[in-house]
Specification:
Distance between the termini: 24 Å
Oligomer: single chain
Low-confidence stretches: 100-104
CATH class: Mainly Alpha
Number of strands: 2
Number of helices: 8
Shape: globular
Structural class: mainly alpha
Mean pLDDT: 77
Strand order of the largest sheet: 1-2
Strand content: under 5%
Length: about 200
């Protein structure tokens, strides 16, 4: 596919990485994540104002984007598409948790100065959204099953049973600080799985 000349060198580099990733180059996945992980995280943090939730949502954003990478069309930049995936996923989270956050009608400004508008959907899930949610859960399960046993337990309590950090600490009879530290480590391992294991994606 011929890429429109209007795209910047950075965008063209992303297109090249996407092609390489789809062809099976695991380093290309890692490069894409390294380029945008920090900016996606900061966007999630602006929306939910919670460090732990922002990290969780960043993982989900990359997992979902990488899973659908072959469907990406070069009609717009990868960063715009990625941020739409991330923000729409975050909106679902905000609605579910009914969080007191920034207005979801506001545009999000990325690190490069570009803004991304957020498409607001009806609050009720349609059949396609239910399917996507189910698919996302199954995707996360595949990653989690590759973690060491002690991290699997923590992640399942956090993601699948949706317990708070305090509830997990009580469930495991462990200090809250230990739970947070181990969940942080589990998230790092999940990042590695997302960017290094194309077969899982």
């Amino acid at each position: 596919m011929e890429v429109n000349k209007k795209f910047s060198d950075k965008a063209l580099e992303d297109f090249k990485l996407i092609d390489e990733a789809i062809e099976g180059d695991e380093k290309a996945y890692a490069d894409l994540m390294d380029k945008y992980r920090k900016s996606v995280y900061h966007t999630m943090l602006k929306m939910v104002r919670n460090v732990d939730d922002a990290e969780d949502l960043t993982i989900e954003a990359f997992a979902k984007a990488f899973k659908n990478l072959s469907k990406f069309k070069k009609d717009y930049t990868f960063s715009t598409w990625l941020f739409r995936v991330a923000t729409n996923n975050c909106i679902d989270f905000i609605r579910k948790k009914k969080l007191d956050t920034m207005s979801i009608n506001a545009d999000i400004t990325k690190d490069d100065g570009d803004s991304v508008s957020i498409d607001i959907k009806d609050k009720s899930l349609d059949p396609q959204e239910v399917a996507i949610k189910t698919q996302k859960i199954e995707l996360v399960r595949k990653f989690v099953n590759l973690l060491p046993a002690k991290y699997q337990k923590l992640v399942k309590l956090r993601y699948f049973e949706e317990l708070s950090y305090d509830e997990i600490a009580k469930e495991l009879d462990a200090p809250l600080g230990t739970v947070k530290a181990q969940l942080h480590r589990a998230r790092e391992l999940l990042y590695d799985l997302v960017k290094n294991s194309k077969n899982v994606i």
